[in-house]
Amino acid sequence: AARLSGGENRLVSLPLSRIRVIMKSSPEVSSINQDALFLTAKATELFVQYLATHSYKHGRGKEKNALTYSDLSHTAEECETFQFLADILPKKILASKYLKMLEKEKRDGEVGENDEEEEDDEDETVGQDVGS
């Protein structure tokens, strides 16, 4: 317990007070056991370490001797283990490219809607011919 309160021999690097605040933000949590707090902090540290190590080994970080955001983003997108992070670590794109993507999606959506309307018109025509 003395080690959990701080000092030189800390077992976790993350601030326990912040982790407690995050855990208490859940409506299902009424109280937090000190052991649960410690284990959550340690598990989080190990997860972040694993994510960083994997991203470094499989990214361009080795070439530059640095870990970059794009390495993390690429790992979240490509590695099945980390795909749940894809929304949190999206690939960075320029605003101009994003706007072009939105315009293209809008155009594709309009074309798709027009195609559906044409199909409906064809169905009505066929139904009328059969009934005559």
From TrEMBL:
<dbReference type="InterPro" id="IPR003958">
    <property type="entry name" value="CBFA_NFYB_domain"/>
</dbReference>
<keyword id="KW-0175">Coiled coil</keyword>
<dbReference type="GO" id="GO:0016779">
    <property type="term" value="F:nucleotidyltransferase activity"/>
</dbReference>
<dbReference type="GO" id="GO:0003677">
    <property type="term" value="F:DNA binding"/>
</dbReference>
<keyword id="KW-0539">Nucleus</keyword>
<keyword id="KW-0808">Transferase</keyword>
<dbReference type="InterPro" id="IPR009072">
    <property type="entry name" value="Histone-fold"/>
</dbReference>
<keyword id="KW-0238">DNA-binding</keyword>
<feature type="domain" description="Transcription factor CBF/NF-Y/archaeal histone">
    <location>
        <begin position="13"/>
        <end position="74"/>
    </location>
</feature>
<dbReference type="Pfam" id="PF00808">
    <property type="entry name" value="CBFD_NFYB_HMF"/>
</dbReference>
<dbReference type="InterPro" id="IPR050568">
    <property type="entry name" value="Transcr_DNA_Rep_Reg"/>
</dbReference>
<keyword id="KW-0548">Nucleotidyltransferase</keyword>
<dbReference type="GO" id="GO:0008623">
    <property type="term" value="C:CHRAC"/>
</dbReference>
<dbReference type="GO" id="GO:0046982">
    <property type="term" value="F:protein heterodimerization activity"/>
</dbReference>
<dbReference type="GO" id="GO:0006261">
    <property type="term" value="P:DNA-templated DNA replication"/>
</dbReference>
<feature type="compositionally biased region" description="Acidic residues">
    <location>
        <begin position="111"/>
        <end position="126"/>
    </location>
</feature>
<keyword id="KW-0007">Acetylation</keyword>
<dbReference type="GO" id="GO:0006338">
    <property type="term" value="P:chromatin remodeling"/>
</dbReference>
<comment type="subunit">
    <text>Heterodimer with POLE3; binds to DNA. Component of the CHRAC ISWI chromatin remodeling complex at least composed of SMARCA5/SNF2H, BAZ1A/ACF1, CHRAC1 and POLE3; the complex preferentially binds DNA through the CHRAC1-POLE3 heterodimer and possesses ATP-dependent nucleosome-remodeling activity. Within the complex, the heterodimer with POLE3 interacts with SMARCA5/SNF2H; the interaction is direct and enhances nucleosome sliding activity by the SMARCA5/SNF2H and BAZ1A/ACF1 interaction. Within the complex, the heterodimer with POLE3 interacts with BAZ1A/ACF1; the interactions are direct.</text>
</comment>
<feature type="region of interest" description="Disordered">
    <location>
        <begin position="105"/>
        <end position="132"/>
    </location>
</feature>
<protein>
    <recommendedName>
        <fullName>Chromatin accessibility complex protein 1</fullName>
    </recommendedName>
</protein>
<keyword id="KW-0597">Phosphoprotein</keyword>
<comment type="function">
    <text>Forms a complex with DNA polymerase epsilon subunit POLE3 and binds naked DNA, which is then incorporated into chromatin, aided by the nucleosome remodeling activity of ISWI/SNF2H and ACF1. Does not enhance nucleosome sliding activity of the ACF-5 ISWI chromatin remodeling complex.</text>
</comment>
